[in-house]
Amino acid sequence: MASGKEQEQQGFKQARCVKVHGPIIVGAGPSGLAAAACLSQQGVPSLILEKSDCIASLWQQRTYDRLKLHLPKQFCELPLLGFPANFPKYPNKSQFISYMESYASHFNIHPKFNQAVKKAEYDRAKGIWRVQTEHLEYHSRWLIAATGENAEPVIPEIAGCDKFKGTILHTSEYNSGSKFKNQRILVIGCGNSGMEVSLDLCRHNAIPHMVVRNTVHVLPREMFGMSTFGVAMALLKWFPLRLVDKLLLLVANLTLGNTDQLGLKRPKTGPIELKNVTGKTPVLDVGALSQIKSGKIKVVEGVKEITKNGVKFMDGQEKEFESIILATGYKSNVPTWLKGCDFFTKDGMPKTPFPKGWKGENGLYAVGFTRRGLLGTASDAVKIAHDIAGEWKRAKESIRSCNSHLIIHLDHDGAK
Ligand SMILES: Cc1cc2nc3c(=O)[nH]c(=O)nc-3n(C[C@H](O)[C@H](O)[C@H](O)COP(=O)(O)OP(=O)(O)OC[C@H]3O[C@@H](n4cnc5c(N)ncnc54)[C@H](O)[C@@H]3O)c2cc1C
Ligand SMILES: NC(=O)c1ccc[n+]([C@@H]2O[C@H](COP(=O)([O-])OP(=O)(O)OC[C@H]3O[C@@H](n4cnc5c(N)ncnc54)[C@H](OP(=O)(O)O)[C@@H]3O)[C@@H](O)[C@H]2O)c1
Q: Can you supply a Gene Ontology BP term from the record (predicted)?
């Protein structure tokens, strides 16, 4: 066991220690809440440490106003308590937040807010996880990482950013296009965020230009009146993945037309195979494509450099913009706080892919790192709770049997 001074040198300041009865969960997003609810159903208490001041902070503080779920609600439910029946098929942001709030209150989940985990490390000698926040050190036999795949914005280094005299912001700071009326805006990135923010800008009479530097799959949100995702899930039960990809692309081409002609070239690999191999999510179109067709959203080349008044593109063209919105995605932050374990890659994703990436060694678990959205979260949470509950019950049994031995010994001693 390291001395206090040694611990300090290893990065653990002398902090007040709190022994946690049950697992420590880092993050009070949907994944942390789902894990806590499933544990509670198994009779296992837990403690959630959350760095912000609310639950589901990604949804409450870092998403734009017009956001709606892309997938029907039955694919975005957390375990044990579904969306209210009167919610629409695709709940909007405020409905999703209200669902999270009722979920937390239903399971009596009370995270500790403003508790950013700075460091968590396994103490082999004691067989516990030491989890450090600014002022406290929490100890538990189990640690559940629930900080999400989208914990931090990806901010690319683009030459000349410092020269630009307009505003540069990431989509996580974008609320609505109302501030950008009549402005020429460059949206860098064409994932779901880039497409939806460009659409929102159009609806607020701004003039968006969207950078597409690579290939991208755009699919309709629905096919034959059913969600494309639901159709794909159903087909995958019967047909091989590549055939399903071909069918999806056939229908997408029939309904959306040839997207290549709009500057949105399709990758050679199909949408589901690409998602499985690289994690790259296909865009589900909710209206941006028709604005691209009408020329209201202009598709532009990759950016070479940012200038004082705008941008120089890879093809040599130069254009002026008043603001630049980085729709460049998100990354996990696990490597910044989880130390001394090689369960996660340097990008903060479990090394073992889905469906086995939920369990590490020494009581370490990961929920919500499956690249499968809330469906993946639900699957992880159930398995984690089941696994921990088994250990929890065995530990309780052994304490009970130790106590009864002790009582028998005491009785014998008393009888002598
Ligand atoms: C714009 C947008 C739209 C999306 N729409 C959908 C959708 O429709 N359907 C879908 O399935 N998925 C969607 N997703 C994916 C989304 O990430 C998940 O739905 C969901 O939010 C994941 O939940 P989570 O709890 O794993 O992560 P998060 O929601 O990111 O929650 C993680 C929590 O951990 C906290 N945290 C981070 N680091 C620390 C730390 N060091 N210490 C303490 N707390 C910490 C954060 O503050 C946060 O509250 C969307 C993502 C984005 C960005
Ligand atoms: N309504 C919804 O349900 C909804 C809405 C928004 C987002 N989401 C989800 O949220 C997650 C994140 O989505 P996202 O769109 O924010 O991120 P994303 O899917 O990771 O897309 C990032 C985009 O930025 C581009 N990019 C990154 N760096 C760049 C650079 N330096 N120059 C030019 N382009 C660059 C990427 O291009 P490359 O492909 O070339 O790297 C990609 O087009 C996804 O899972 C998504 O499905 C859901």
A: auxin biosynthetic process
